[in-house]
Each structure stands twice: as C-alpha cells, then as structure tokens.
Amino acid sequence: MPGFSSQFSGYLSPNSIGQFALYIQKELSNEVSKEPIFLQVDLLLQDGMIFIEVQAQKSGKELYIIENQTNFEIEYWQENGRPGRLESGKTTPFGWDLPMQ
Amino acid sequence: MILLKPHRSTDKPLSVSLDKMNATVQMENYLVKTILDHSTRKLLITLPSQQVVDKSGDNYHTVINVNFSKIGVSLVQNFNEIQSKEFLFVTLQGFELMLAQSEKVKDYQFRLKYLNIDNNAKFITPYPVLFTPKNKRFLKENERAYFLNVLLKQDTLAENCMFFKNVVFDIEPMCVKVEASFIQLLQDFMGQLNSALEQSAHLHQPALCAQPWATCALPAETNPVYIDEIIISPVNVSLTFTSESKSQSANKLMLLQMILKTVGTSVINFDDAQIDLKGFKLQNCFDTP
Question: Are A64 and B47 an interchain contact pair (Cβ–Cβ within 8 Å)?
Fold first, then answer.
C-alpha cells in the first residue's frame, strides 16, 4: 500500500473463511517511527467465489482488545510475532502478525 | 494464541487463546479473562484482588453485603486510670464483606481498599505511621484495586467434609515502620486486655460442681478440610525498625535482643528492608484437624 513500509504482513490463506484483525506498520519514508495499523480482514465465500475484503478497523469496533488493569506493565506477543508492551491501566487493540499461525 | 507476561519478569509467558470466551487463567500475581463485549473479544488482565464473586454463574438465593466506606478504630491504653491515652489509630477504607449462597456453593469475600495504622504512642516519633500500603496512588485511582482480598468458595454439596473450591489471598505491597518501644507498649496493652478478659470470664463463671464430668471438656467436632485450589499472591513488605538507647529499654527488650542474637545479627536498626514472600498456587490440599 502507498506510504506503508516495504515489509509484508503475515501470509493469509484464502481457504480459511472467517474474520480476523491484521497488524501492519505504516512507515513514511522521511520518518523513523512506525505507526501501527489494524486491518479488518474478512474472507467470504459467496456463490462459489472467495472474496477477501480488507478495511481499516474503525475505532470502537475493534475485533480484539487487550486491557491491562494491573499495576504493572505487560508484555504481549504472538508466537514469532513482534512484541508489544501495555502500561498499567491502558487498553490497546490487537491484530495478528501471522494470522494463519 | 497470545503470549503474555509482566514486563521484565523472568517467568514463563502465559499462552492465552482469544477463541475461548469467559475462560479465566489464574497466575501467581495476575489473572487473565477473555470476554465478549459486543463484537469485540477482550483480553482482560487484572490483579487477583479484582476477582469478585461472580453472581452470574450461580443462582444465588442469598446475598449479604456489608460495606463500610470508612472506619476508624482507636486503641486506648490505661483506660481505667486517669492518664489514659490513645496509642494506635487504625483507619479502614472500603471495607466490604460479602456472603453469597446458592444451592451448590457458598462464597465468602472480604475486601479492604485501604488500611492505615497511626502510631500515637508518643508525641514526637520518627515513625508516626506504623503501617500503610505502598501503592496508595494506584489504590486510589483504580476503582477495582483493593489492598486486601480474601476469597473463599465453598461447595455445600460435599458431605462430612469442608470442601473449598477456591481459596484466594491477595495483599498489596505494604510499608511497616516500628520503634522498639512501641513493641513493649503493645505487649503491655495485650497484657491489660488479657487481664480484663480474664476478670470478665471470672465474673460469669458458674459455681464449681464437685462432679468431674461438670468440668470435663467435650472433644472438638472435627471435619476434614479439602481445598481444590489455594492461591496466595506474592507479599512485599518494606520494614523499618529502630531500637532506642540501651539505658532506656535494656530490660524491656531482653526478648527481642535475645531473638536478634539467636539469628546472628548485631545491627538492630534498619531502614526499608525489603521482605519478599513468593506467591504460590497449591492444588488438591487435604487436611484433617
């Protein structure tokens, strides 16, 4: 996608019908920092055809959310995925790095 | 599967599935629950003290809640004499006692939001606060956080034994600052209290009977106790202790000094000594009293 990092997201298999959130990183050429983007991916079977529908996840309609109500910071990650950190009392959306794993 | 663990913890990460709704995984110092909030799958990471009696799972026919927003307890020494004085003031905030009973289970829960003990024994003291939680701000800002949480879940269908499904004890880090003279004062107070109780018991004692059966105590009724799961969270205490000069309290503190000599320490003044007791989780505990 234009303006996005050159890295690909994790692979997805069109045969796995369903819905999931996908994590990718937006990276502008003149910026060092990366902005996380969560995409909602729907794999739909309609009239013998498989549709792959991709849309930006809307705020308030996230598929997965992690909420840290403890008094310490939490580290979380998908196996072989990028690590994330969540501060005490904070909430973050979650998306798979490798959705087919 | 999502892997998670507290930041900088060396523990093995916990593996949680986002597909199993309403599943709870209990770790030593936190618990993880997956819930469905509208169309969002939420992974909730909370402290064990935020675990509450789940009223939705069982059909409770009796629920008793006793809540006090704030209680102050003052301990007064020499109350029969002219120079009576308060030496301890205990502040309890967010005191909650809960009993919920269904056909199958009986749940008991005691929670305390905040506990503070002031040392009023002396007008000038280096430690005016004897006992207080460390994370006051966290307890104040987080509505669901409690300083102390004790949860007992008893299965009432079990016969001839006390069967507890869960026993959870969780306490937040605390700070204790004690002066040696205060321990002596506490001993004196306990002595006075015991003598007062003995006097009271003596007043209500019936006339002694000559028959030996009259004074023979019945054996206590015993029931074996079975606990499916005990979870004790880690306990962190920051302890400060100071002794006074020998001339002041050499005789009074004989016992304490003897203990310290036994454990081989020559230093009896210390500041913010960190005492960490590791939490544990035990399953299938059985005991016969």
Answer: no
| Nearest-Cα residue of chain B relative to residue A100 | B1
The amino acid sitting at B235 is: V
- SS3 for A30-54 is CCCCCEEEEEEEEEEEECCEEEEEE
Check pLDDT > 60 for residue A6: no
Of the candidates B72, B155, B68, the one whose C-alpha atom is nearest the C-alpha of residue B113 is: B68
pLDDT band of residue B253 (cuts 50, 70, 90) is low
Using one digit for the tens of pLDDT, what is the confidence trace for A22-49? 888 776 665 555 678 888 998 888 878 8
Residue B50 CA to residue B111 CA, distance in Å, equals: 9
Determine contact, residues A53/A39, Cβ cutoff 8 Å: no
Picking from A94, A37, A39, the residue whose alpha carbon sits closest to that of residue A68 is: A94
Q: Are B147 and B116 in contact (CB under 8 A)?
A: no
CA pseudo-torsion sign B262, B265, B267, B272: negative
Pair A66, A91: CB distance under 8 Å:
yes
User: What is the Cα–Cα distance from A20 to A35, expressed in whole angstroms?
Assistant: 20
**Contact list, A67 vs chain B (CB under 8 Å):** 42-45
CA distance A80 to chain B (A): 10
- Contact residues, B window 69-128, toward A, CB-based 8 Å cutoff: none
